Predict the structure.
Amino acid sequence: MKSNLTIAFLTSTDPNDKRSWSGIHYCMYNSLKNNFVTVDVIGPIDGFLLKSIGIVNKISRFLFNKGYNHNNSIVRSYLLSLTINKRINKKKYDIIFAPASSSEVAFIKTNAKIIYLSDSSFGQLNGYYDVFSNLFKFSSKESNYIEQKAIDKSDYFIYPSKWAANYIVQNYGVDEQNVSVIPFGANINNEDIVYLEKEISNKTPITLLFLGVEWLRKGGDLVFKTFEMLLENGCDINLIVCGCVPPVSHPKMTVYPFLNKNNKEDFATFNTILSQTHFLFLPSKAECFGIVFCEASAYGIPSITTNTGGIPNAVYDGINGYCLDVNASPKEYYNTIVQLIEDKEKYKALSKSSRALYLNKLNWENWANEVAEIISKISNNNKS
């Protein structure tokens, strides 16, 4: 039975657009609608001034090789608040749910309880992700100010990993009792997933999948070196690269520069790729969580990745894959993959437990149910 609590879903983008925050906003919004009668969308918020702020970053990168984090600027945050305040004050809301919306929250005025969700925080990403690195000093201070202001204004916090949750407790003065860790889900409708039980054999071709937009950050160089090592040692391996055009090529490597899951033909191709894949191989050098690991688990595909950022809350060693040290060599990845190729029963069990983890934990229904419990608890505390 749906709750009658009124929820404002606060983003400056449109959560009905599957491209918003790489589809995460869309999945969160639609999952919450299954638990609450009223989930009002506050975005999108457009405007010439908001869009023009981004030009500053492009100019500064070109002229000074320094970045300006315009998305977390004081000017942008204040301009957003002018529109947001008008929209949220037209109606009495019990909860304002703000996913990845620090700039949207920082300057708003409301009596409603605010739940702030993100996959990390600016202080944690500064120097970890390239896009948040090499910024002007004033931009770093400004971005951290917006993050702190949004956190100070919020009442409860949800992150998909302990890595991100622990950071705000230790660095932004948040009470750990007001923080929950709830992993994200796969950005694919369950009914659209073509799940087939996976089997492996060193007598039949094996497929590795690299699925990501950023070749270097996602460890594409390590993938290719390991792929070559497997071939050199007699393994019948195919490599599929999806989401980017790598700076290398090979006769046994197939590249799909971009697949739009909203397009029926592209999604059919995506489904075919994952139904034939044996390993998701993504040794990321920096990662906040990784929705792609949830998607791999949905298809029963074990993930081979690194122990960095929030990945250990998406990939559990021996259950839906393995997290190697972030400095692991191609030889170490080679050994991990070969051991699973040579032990088909171990691989089969790993594939089954990957699928089970998706069904029990790494899905949006589970996420929404846990969030709904938090919302109900906050609302009850507010009444007492």
